[in-house]
Each structure stands twice: as C-alpha cells, then as structure tokens.
Amino acid sequence: MAPAKTKKSAKVVASQEEDITMDDAPVAPQEHEDEEGEEVAGEDQAPPEDEDTLEQRITVLPGGTEQAASFQLKEEDHTLGNALRYIIMKNPDVEFCGYSIPHPSEALMNIRIQTYDGTAKDALSKGLDDLMDLCDVVAGKFQIARDGYMNSEAGKADQPEA
Amino acid sequence: MDYDPMIMDTEAMGPSVKITEAGSHHVDFELQTVDLAFANSLRRVILAEVPTMAIDLVEIEANTSVLADEFITHRLGLIPLVSKNVDDVVYSRDCDCEQYCELCSVTLTLHARCTGDEIMKVYARDLVVAPLRPNQWVGNPVITDPEALGTVICKLRKGQELRMKCIAKKGIAKEHAKWAPTSAVGFEYDPHNKLRHTTLWYEEDPAKEWIKSKYAEWEEPQQEGEPFDFDAVPDKFYFEVESVGNLEPDAIIQQGIKVLQQKLAAVIQDLTEGDANGNGLNGGYDGPRSPDIAPAWQDQGYTTPYGNGGQASAWGGGAATPYGATPYGQNGANGWN
What we know:
The complex is a heterodimer.
Chain A: H1 2-21, H2 27-45, H3 47-52, E1 58-60, E2 68-74, H4 78-89, E3 94-100, E4 108-115, H5 120-151, H6 153-158
Antiparallel strand pairs in A: 1-2, 2-4, 3-4
Helix pairs in contact in A: 4-5
Chain B: H1 5-12, E1 16-22, E2 26-32, H2 36-48, E3 52-63, H3 69-77, E4 105-113, E5 120-123, E6 128-129, E7 152-156, E8 161-171, E9 182-189, H4 206-209, E10 236-243, H5 249-276
Antiparallel strand pairs in B: 1-2, 2-10, 3-8, 4-6, 4-8, 5-7, 9-10
C-alpha cells in the first residue's frame, strides 16, 4: 500500500514539473485570473447597468485560445445552433465549427469554433452577420414571391374576400 | 481551402422562393438554394416561436356548469385569437404594470346563462372583447365557420351560468401550444429519397409499396443503376404552412424570419456589448463544471481519502488548462496547440 502511494505522488510531481516547463502552461491560468479580477471590478463600477441590461447570454467557456474557443449561449437551441454552425463553417477562415446541447433539460447551447486565420470571436460575429443577411434575402425573396403570386391569376382565384 | 467554381456559381444566385399554392389559411412554397440547417431553423421558428395571443388568465366569478373551472379554463386557452400586428402588444413580463394592463393584455368577458328548456351551447363568439386594447384586431376570437359561431366552449342546462373574465396575453408556442400560429408545418425535401436520409421499410419493393409524395414529379427520379452521390446535399425544401387563423400565413413566415433575426441580433448585441464594458463575454463562467475544473492552479485541489495528495483529481488532473482535466482524460495539454 505505502509504496504504491509514494509512486502515485511521485507521478503527480513529475506531471506538475512537466506542466511548468511547458512554455504556455502558466500563461493560461494567469490570464484567466486577470480576467476574473477585471470582471469583479466592472461589476462594482456599474451595478445599475447590469440591472438594466439583460443578463449576459453568451459566455466563453474556459480553456479556449484566440483561435479556438467554445461559446455558451443561454436560451438557444437547434434553431440557432445548426444554422449558425453551417454558416460559420462556410467561412474559409474557419477550420472547425460544431455545436452541442450538453443536456436536454438545460436551455444551453455550446458552439465550438476553431480558425485558421483570425479569432474565433470574429468568426462567430461574422457568422451571425451572415445568417442575418441570409434571413434578409429569404424574407425579401418571400415578399417578392408573395406579391407575384397575389397578382397572378392563381392568387386572385385563391382570394375571394379581402 | 480551394473552391469549386461550379458551386460558387450556383450559390451566387442565392436562395429563391416559389409560392405554389396559397389561401386565406395556408401557403405552400418551395425554398431553394438554402441549406438544410437554415430551412429547418425556419421551420422550427415558425412552429414554436412566432408570437400570438391566447387567453392566459381566467378569473371565474360563477361556474355552475357541469365542467370544472380548470376544464373550462383550458378550453378557453385553446381558442385561437386574432393576433394581427401582435407586435403592438408587449409581453406581460416586460410590461411595467403590476399584473396586466391594456398594453400587454386583452380582456375578454364571458357571461352566459341558460334560461330556456333547451340545452344551450356557449361559443367563442360569446366572448366580449374589451374596447381598451393595443390595436383593433388583437384578441378577437377566430371565427371561420359559416354560421360565425366559433368553437364551442361549454354546454349549459337550464339555470346554469358561466361568468368569467379572461385575460389574453402574448406568448410563444415554445411555452404553451395554445400560442401556436400554425396547426401544422409540412416540411419535405428529396421526395425520391436519393440522399438516403431515410430508410423506407418494405416487403418486396419500396418503390411500389410507398406512395409518392406530390413533389416527386417535380424532381428527377433516381435513374436505373445511378451510383449514389455521396456529396449530394438537399437543395429544395417544400413547406406547407397551415395557419390556425390567428395570423395570416404570409405573416407567419415573415414573423418567423423576424424572430430568427431577433435571436441573432440579441447574440450580436451581447457579443459587442461584452467587448465594450470589459466584462460580459469573457466574464465569469457560472455554468456547471466538473469538480476538478475548479482552478487547479489556485488551490491544492482536494485530497481524496485514497491519498494521491495535492491537485490530482479523481481523473488524474494537474491540468494546465481548465479543460485539460476533463473526464475524457487528456491530461494537461488541451489538444489544440
């Protein structure tokens, strides 16, 4: 029992050392600590604003880098997730984009973006803008089709009243 | 990443919409050159997230009918109410009023009493809409039958009485199906199942046993001995939107797209706002985490009774990144760099 114990703890020490020698190992946690500090400060400065604006519905999940990050969206589902995933994936700067709903009884949607070029956040905002434009186009096309149909013979026949 | 110029050419044309049939309560259309994900988003949003009006609160003053209060209340909730220009109504939860007011609700009163010997039916037309309401359409019961009666709410025998005040509010079908703008949304693509997204059950020959959809003749059927195209994606989507009567079918689709855009706008706003005031986007993640993801570099982790002291977690952490010590066992390095 005892030798096994020491072996285990030795292993732990070894892995710790490995981690420390890695160049970027200490950076990530430190960055995170800083951000947390900032966040607390921000909250202290502007508590009324927080009450006014709705709660933040998008967060970056821990463990990301500039080029590869996971975002968590509250109150979103496949309606936004799949379409957004597709449109982000269309961006040639994006290496990978995937989404998941971690648990069916939590209204949360996670979206993972990894880029070749540019930040993951930029890819996300570009995806949102692109999807917005797509919606505009489809809404416009539908309106044109609807007006065209209403003026056509079939449309007039279908509308006895009004 | 290189592009196939052919694909670029077809996409340059952009999406197209063709209306194949329309009436006062339905619209059939074909959506082309969009992807399955977007078409499905549109379907989902039309089905569950287009706001309408429905009775949400009932104050019962008298109910001597054979039906229980909650039974009638449920029936009242399911009566479709005209929701034209429902944007004029604010959500009750967003309204400044105490409980409900004329900005966020429509009041309908129902007072019926059977005095004759015949059994009396109470119809949706017997609901009296209060004059104070966000606009002139919102809250009227949908009445489409030739006798202009509307749906039956209850039957009363001699001496029985119903007296109640119904508060209709704005809502979406995701919360309760009574707010659904559609009775059904048909969604179909690939009528010949060329993409094999479905497996047709058959005894001898699926082609003979399965009735072809009406869209089958609009698309080229599978040729004899045609090899399966692994790269093929669906391109034409056939929608059949059937309105309940509370919104016009074309309004449902336009509202649906609008709701989708509002979702996007909300995320875009959050994303940019988070930037502006420093917190927000990168702000604290307060979601659920595995116990070992608690910052391993800050505390000593927890020592298990099994003695592997220090920060080693049950899964053997000592993680460099918070993600490193996932139960999936990538120890330390997070795999992306």
